[in-house]
Amino acid sequence: MLTTRQTPTVQDFPTATLVLAGPWKQGQQLDPRPGVVVGPFGGPDFADEATMSVVWYFTLGTPEPGETVQAMFPHELTPIDDSLTTMHQDVFRDIACGLRRGRFAYDDGVALRAAVRQAWRERTGLTDADPAARHTMHRS
After folding, report:
1. Residues of the chain with pLDDT > 90: what percent?
2. Is 4 within 8 Å of 11 (Cβ atoms)?
3. Based on CB atoms within 10 Å of each CB, which residue in 32, 111, 138, 140 is the most buried?
4. pTM for this structure?
5. Looking at the predicted structure, is the pLDDT value of residue 77 above 70?
6. Alpha carbon separation from 85 to 1, 27, 41, 50, 115 (Å, rounded)
7. What pLDDT is recorded for position 140?
8. Is the separation of the CB atoms in 53 and 72 below 8 Å?
9. Integer Rg of the chain from CA
10. CA-CA distance, 76 to 23, in Å (whole number)?
11. Could you report the per-residue pLDDT of 103-130, keeping only the tens digit for each?
């Protein structure tokens, strides 16, 4: 019996998803390395129409369009079973520091910066990782 594999879409890779993919350099695709999804190509307003996701290859340096930040097709991305909240603290620190020093085209980095700030709060215990739990906390 033949089974068909569903083709991934941009919606399968929301902002802050950790992925493994091969960035491109001078027309050659490099070996796969970790990256983080910045968002849909064209920004959040085009999330339903986008055919590519913007990925920051944080192991290659601070965010710079073309070098470390590239648009990738969803079939080129493999999700990593980890998150900004649970990843190794040194790698998370590199991402958080790199975001401050780098740049993205247009406003592409806004949602990722917000996700990193939220992950930092969760990692430091300033907020609960479970959104439902936030509604059950009461101030004294």
Report:
1. 69
2. no
3. 111
4. 0.84
5. yes
6. 40, 34, 24, 27, 10
7. 35
8. yes
9. 16
10. 9
11. 888 767 999 999 999 999 999 988 766 5
